[in-house]
Amino acid sequence: MNRDATYLGHIGQAIQAIDAYLAGVTEEAFGETPMVRDAVLRNLEVLSEASRRLSDELKQRHPEIPWTAIAAAGNVYRHDYHSVNEEIVWQTATAGLGGIRKVLAQELA
Predict the structure, then answer these.
(1) pLDDT of residue 1
(2) What are the angstrom distances between the C-alpha of 82 and each of 42, 58, 76, 78, 86?
(3) What is the pLDDT of residues 74-97, one digit of tens each?
(4) Which of 105, 109, 101 lies closest to 18, judged by CA?
(5) What global pTM score does this model have?
(6) Hey, which CATH number is domain 3-108, 1.10.12, 3.30.70, 1.10.287, 1.20.120?
(7) Distance in angstroms (rounded) separating the CA atoms of residues 44 and 70
């Protein structure tokens, strides 16, 4: 398995975990459940870190994905954790991963 496939697999696993943690969870419940928030944030960190390790060639094939922003978000989750915006995390986890899902489907097909 090549390097990109390995890290795309990690990204896919993180997205699956996020989906599982948020199954049936409302935005209000997300805000009131620290364990779910922490689990989602951890998987967004994994997604961010794995995205950093993808080849430039893969990233260039998918310029519609904000690779730099994904990497920067991971820095916020890890280093500026006190400024993490819960609403942005919710939006990212529930509506912001569609583009990456498409990349996974295309690249792993």
Answers:
(1) 55
(2) 15, 32, 9, 9, 11
(3) 999 999 998 999 999 999 999 999
(4) 101
(5) 0.94
(6) 1.20.120
(7) 9
Q: CA-CA distances (angstroms) from residue 52 to 39, 48, 55?
A: 20, 7, 8
Cβ–Cβ < 8 Å for 43, 17: yes
3-class SS string, the chain: CCHHHHHHHHHHHHHHHHHHHHCCCCHHHHHCCHHHHHHHHHHHHHHHHHHHCCCHHHHHHCCCCCHHHHHHHHHHHHHCHHHCCHHHHHHHHHHCCHHHHHHHHHHHC
